[in-house]
Write a structure and sequence with these properties.
By secondary structure, this protein is mostly helical. About 90% of the residues lie in helices and about 0% in strands. Keywords: Membrane, Transmembrane, Transmembrane helix.
């Protein structure tokens, strides 16, 4: 059961990275659209 917390942390880190990239792309898109 020692592997599970590490796997969970990896999934959370990947999720946060993907959300960060996604929000950055949205901000970039809106910046170009409205300026």
């Amino acid at each position: 059961m020692l592997l599970f917390p590490e796997l969970l942390k990896g999934c959370v880190a990947l999720f946060l990275i993907l959300m960060g990239i996604h929000s950055f792309c949205i901000l970039h898109f809106f910046h170009h659209r409205f300026h």
